[in-house]
# Entry
Amino acid sequence: MSAPILACRGLSKRFGGVLALDGLDLEVQPGSVLGLIGPNGSGKTTFFNVLTGLFPADAGESRFAGDPITRLRPQAVYRAGIARTFQRSRLCLPLSIFENLMVGNHQRLEHGLWFNLARRKALARQIADSFEAARALLRIFDPPLADRMQEPAGRIPMIDRRRVEVCRALISRPRLLLLDEPSAGMTHDETVRLMDDILLVQRELGDLTIVLIEHEMSVIERVTARCVVLNYGRKIAEGTYAEVSQDAAVRQAYLGVE
Amino acid sequence: MRSRAAAVLLAALATAFAWLLLRAESQGAIAALIALAVLAGFALLRTRLLDAFTRAALRDERLAQWLAFAAVAVLALLLREDDFSLLLLTRVLIVIVACLGLNVQLGYAGVVNFAGASFFGVGGYTAAVLSRATGLPHLLLLLAGGVTAALAGTVLLLPILRTRGHYAALITIAFALLFRTFLEVNDSLGGPQGLKLPELRIGPIRFNDPVAAGPLEGSFYLKYVVLALLVLAFFFAVVQRLERSWIGLALDAVRIDETAAATFGLDIARWKIAAFVIGNFVIGVAGALSAFMIGFIAPNNYSFAESLILVSILLLGGVGNPWGLSLAAAIVILLPEKLQIIQEYRFLMFASMVVLILLFRPAGLVPRPMRRLPGTPR
# Structure
């Protein structure tokens, strides 16, 4: 096995009396898709929030491509090459689809005052180029949506918002993509399509690793090479989906004690 | 073509109306004119014609800008002998400039500022003190007013960045109250009596001499109208370009969802600081210009109540929309000056106007349209 792209050791996070993450060890191989599953409140989203620097970790460390990212602010984590989606869609609804995508592309855009105010031709060129790039990416997911990029994000249905959110994360060309329940609010078929599209982009980009939080087990089974199961902030099982789904501790966590 | 003709017609009607209103002397006539405007406004809103007009204006914004520019110029020429009306017109233009600055803060970055009048005052006092103490060119002093206002704002940066929502608002309110007390107790700034300013001079132009250029004769206020209009045109263009750029997008993202913005690398503090500083600069320039025009400043002009009026102009016109706040500034400045019954109750009137707007048209009279970035298809 090659060196892991993401490695966490003893990651812990406490909220008052609740230990949301309890000494989590986790490794992700480059180019793979890791499934992160577990009952509600088992710490999956907290893990993403700690990893991306939204919450500081109380203990433990995480390394991305060998470099420590534990104490980084969210902005620095993003610049290191980690992008995410949110469980509850967090698009800027009054802004257009294109503008939302550009929020994800922040680090590639030129933000100088002089450039933006006075060099309008150069700015227009940069915007036109970004527009084409965004359209090309969105077209992979849904061609009709790619022709509606100037509509406000608040006006499109939930499935399209999910697509836009995934594209907003992808457009920065991250090396690690954290997907927090992309299927929430979507039908089974829609979820399957969305995941297929994400995998297609992954193949095209080459160097993209994905960690996926998902409750739809058929999706996990289809797209993940390995799974990590959390319960009460601890890892209770790890392996292929076939392995963890037979695991006694996992069955107990999901279904309760018989 | 038809929409262009309609736009020209509308601009002509608005100019004619403004002319009638500014010229009108009897309270009865003024009340009738205002009633007419209110009815017309309701009709425009109910029939959605106002929205159609704004959409049309947006399609051909260059035309709208020229029409607005021409309307002010024609109005100033028609009123060329009328000191008081020209003074009012200039005040409207200057208040629009100040609101443009506030708009960058509140409308784009979502940084609340209930001390707008204070920064306006910092600009005014800077112009007063420097023009009395130094021989610096006055045009430079307008800039200096903006710079000191921006610098004064940095005092508030740390507490504003560390607090959110209501608490950040409270801090700016505290600053507004402190600022006025500071002016009142500070004798070198004239104390409660305030300061007089010398005549504004830019190059060979003396602003307090009447205009006599060939056949054209008129009040000295004509020069202030021209200057204020130029300053307004400049900052209007700057603020619009700012909005229609990556910067405007970043500010919007910060305002709408700080967490999501931070996750995509946006430095929240940096953008808030940028908006606050730019906004205060614009407000400060407006304040310096206003001080020169009135020729006299005192702490009373920069009270917390005045700050509230600036914010209510934004809410009334449509937060984030330079066109909307221009319309609202005209309403809020002209109404109490012309209709004297209101003068006494003007705060009551503004408060009820804001409440009505928030209830029935929360995005303002002219809601902010979608951003039109250059380089994107129309």
